[in-house]
Amino acid sequence: DNLLRRAACQEAQAFGNQLIPATAPLKKATVFLNPAACKGKAGNLFEKNAAPILHLSGLDVTVVKTDYEGQAKKLLELMENTDLIIIAGGDGTVQEVITGLLRRADEAAFSKIPIGFIPLGKTCTLSHTLYPESANQVQHITNATLAILKGETVPLDVLQIKGEKEQPVFAVSGLRWGSYRDAGVKVSKYWYLGPLKTKAAHFFSTLKEWPQKHQAALMYLGPTERPPEEPEEKASRPPLHVRLYRRLRSYWSSPKAFPQEVAPEDWEELKLSTIELSIATQNRQLDLTRTQDFMDICIEAESVSKGQFVHRGTQKMRDPHMCPEGSQCIQASRCILQLPEGTEGSFGIDNEEYEAMPVEVKLLPRKLRFFCDPRMREQMLQAAVQ
C-alpha cells in the first residue's frame, strides 16, 4: 500500500512541478467529503490516499466535511466559483452533491464545472463506469484521484425525479421500487448469518406476504434524437464589414414564414402490476457515440416462485438494475408514475431511501461531465467503433 501511495504521489508531483504564467490563478478544487461513509472510515481513507495527491498536484484545495445527511445540498447553494468539484464518499454523497448543484438558480453555468469522484463509500456505482476494477482499495482510490489530474472527462446522463410538492431530486444511476429493493435494505439486519445473510433477507420477506405485487399506472414518451455536440469554445467575432453585410441582408430578405404549430407530445399509457420496477440511466454501459437519448424502464413479471425470488435477489445485490428474462423493457425520455392512494413503501434513488409517491422522471442527457480514467474512455471509444 505504501509503495502504491508513493508512486501516485510522484506522478502527482509531475503535475505540481509544471510552470504556470505569473498572471494565471491557481486552479481551485472544492472537495465535499463525507467522513461517515464506509462505516466512518472515509475521512481516514481520504487523508491517507487522496489528500496528498491533490495537494502535490498544485491545486488550491478546499475540503468541506459534511456533518449530517442533507448538509451537502445546503452547502452547494452557498458555494462560490470553483474550477473543479470533487466528491469523496459513496452513492449517497454523489446524489446529495448533484442535487444541490442542479437545484441552484445558476445551474446552467455550474453544471459545466467538471466533477471528480473519489470512491470511499460502501456502494460506489459510478466507479464501475469511470475507473478500472481493482481489488486493492488503495490503488482504486489513488487511480480515481490521479484521473482528476489527467483531465479526461465523459458526459453522464442525469434523472430529474419530481414529486407533486417536493423539490426535484437528481440521480445518476436510477430509481428502484419493489420487493427486491425492500429485501435488499434488510440484509444488514441478518449480519450474524454471515454469507447466508442475503438469501435469508429475501427468504424471510417471502413469508410476510406472497405473491408480492406493486401496482401503478405509467405514462411515457419515447427516446429523443441526440443533438450534435456543441463546440466548447465560442467562435471568434467576425470582422465589422461581415457583420454589416449580414445585418443588411437579413433586413432586405423576405419576411420569414410563421413557425408551424408544434405537434402535441405522444404519451403512451400502461397499467402495470409488477414485483419490481426500475428506471435506470445508460451510465452503467456508457456509449459515447449513440444517436438517441433514453432511460431504461424495466417492469419485471410478477409471476416468480419463492426460489427464483431468493436466487434473483442475490444477483440484484451485485447489479441492482439488471433486467431479468421475461421482463418488459421500455426506452423512454420522460415518464410519469402514478401510484394508487395509500401506497406504502419506499423508492431507492441511487441507493438512498425516499418515500414512495407519484413522480415525474425526466432524462437530462449528458448533463454533467465526470473525470474518468483515460484507459476507460479509450475502451468506450474502441467498443463503439467495433
UniProtKB/TrEMBL annotation:
Name this protein carries in UniProt: Acylglycerol kinase, mitochondrial
Coiled coil: none
Catalytic activity as recorded in UniProt: 1-(5Z,8Z,11Z,14Z-eicosatetraenoyl)-sn-glycerol + ATP = 1-(5Z,8Z,11Z,14Z-eicosatetraenoyl)-sn-glycero-3-phosphate + ADP + H(+); a monoacylglycerol + ATP = a monoacyl-sn-glycero-3-phosphate + ADP + H(+); an N-acylsphing-4-enine + ATP = an N-acylsphing-4-enine 1-phosphate + ADP + H(+); 2-(5Z,8Z,11Z,14Z-eicosatetraenoyl)-glycerol + ATP = 2-(5Z,8Z,11Z,14Z-eicosatetraenoyl)-sn-glycero-3-phosphate + ADP + H(+)
All residue ranges annotated as the DAGKc domain in the record: 24-165
Subcellular location: Mitochondrion inner membrane; Mitochondrion intermembrane space
Metabolic or biological pathway, per its Swiss-Prot or TrEMBL entry: Lipid metabolism; glycerolipid metabolism; Glycerolipid metabolism
Lineage of the organism: Eukaryota, Metazoa, Chordata, Craniata, Vertebrata
Record keywords: ATP-binding, Kinase, Lipid metabolism, Membrane, Mitochondrion, Mitochondrion inner membrane, Nucleotide-binding, Transferase
UniProt EC number: 2.7.1.107, 2.7.1.138, 2.7.1.94
Keyword presence, Transmembrane helix: no
Signal peptide, first to last residue: none
Family per similarity comment: Belongs to the AGK family.
GO biological process, alphabetically ordered: ceramide biosynthetic process; glycerolipid metabolic process; sphingosine biosynthetic process
Lineage top rank: taxon: Eukaryota
Gene that specifies this protein: Agk
Primary location group: mitochondrion
Membrane topology per record: Peripheral membrane protein
One Gene Ontology term, aspect cellular component: mitochondrial intermembrane space
